[in-house]
């Protein structure tokens, strides 16, 4: 129809071809999008690391969220799991339920997704697309040498506990959106904190180095809050820990807030996507050198103990009773 601005309806297959299939981008897959399965030629001698993470509208992000940021975050949280295992990313699949084939949304989403994929030189190799409530599930594939995985079960008494980057700004942004803060943030601070919530940077280079150089013992990425995620390492390793809460590196905006908020959101914030890892005290120089070589700040925040339980202490070593808990989707 002359003058019409209505675009032709997108079919499922047009949509995949237009927004997700990039014929000139094949790097690792022997066969990418378009057949019943993708085919990957594994690197001889390496193990494959596989992980999935799902983002659900209304649960992990607000309705109406900017699609570009969603594309970034959906892949970033998955790459963060590879980082925590010490695996090099290879490729990923995307299972997508969409309420409508909206071109503007698909354009933004695929742009955010592929910008991060290209930054790590990884390829979208397949997926599934259906109509439904907005739900984004990515599965990432990575590779690593056998015996180099940074398992949750590998922490040993006497290990140092380290954190990459800073914690708590994502949680601070969420509290700001929810009007939960005693003193609301000014608009610039809210925006700056929200960058950490919407566009986390997965610590892939650091995780890979810690694994490949045999520096770290155990690692986990911090998605549900440090205390809860460190708790997984402690449980699986059969150990305890002492955590210096006041040594936890606060995000730039959280650092301007009062002590109680800093303690709460660094220790049990969530959505940080930093690495928490353990390494023997003899590896301190190696940890700092590895982190420096990939321009990732790291901070030593505690020690693994033989005695079970997590002891929170302040800057003077005095016990803190913070009654903090981590995020749980079925109880929160
Ligand atoms: P099948 O019917 O066998 O499940 P589909 O028709 O769902 O296959 O998908 C056709 C091809 O497009 C497959 O290669 C599949 O991996 C790919 N694909 C479907 N959805 C996506 C998506 N969201 N992102 C990337 N590839 C996709
Ligand atoms: Mg399918």
Automatic annotation (TrEMBL):
PANTHER family (alphabetical): THIAMINE-MONOPHOSPHATE KINASE
Keyword ATP-binding on entry: yes
Miscellaneous comment in the UniProt entry for this protein: Reaction mechanism of ThiL seems to utilize a direct, inline transfer of the gamma-phosphate of ATP to TMP rather than a phosphorylated enzyme intermediate.
UniProt binding sites for ATP: 127-128, 152, 223
Binding site for Mg(2+) 4: 36, 51, 81
SUPFAM superfamilies: PurM C-terminal domain-like, PurM N-terminal domain-like
UniProt GO molecular function: ATP binding; magnesium ion binding; thiamine-phosphate kinase activity
Gene source species: Duganella sacchari
Protein name: Thiamine-monophosphate kinase
Keywords assigned: ATP-binding, Kinase, Magnesium, Metal-binding, Nucleotide-binding, Thiamine biosynthesis, Transferase
Ranges of residues in domain PurM-like N-terminal: 34-143
Positions contributing to Mg(2+) 2 binding: 53, 81
A GO biological process held by the record: thiamine biosynthetic process
Residues involved in Mg(2+) 1 binding: 52-53, 128
Pathway: Cofactor biosynthesis; thiamine diphosphate biosynthesis; thiamine diphosphate from thiamine phosphate: step 1/1
InterPro entries: PurM-like_C_dom, PurM-like_C_sf, PurM-like_N, PurM-like_N_sf, ThiL-like
Binding, Mg(2+) 5: 224
Positions annotated to bind Mg(2+) 3: 36, 81, 221
EC id: 2.7.4.16
Gene designation: thiL
Catalytic activity annotation: thiamine phosphate + ATP = thiamine diphosphate + ADP
Binding site for substrate: 60, 271, 327
Domain PurM-like C-terminal: 156-313
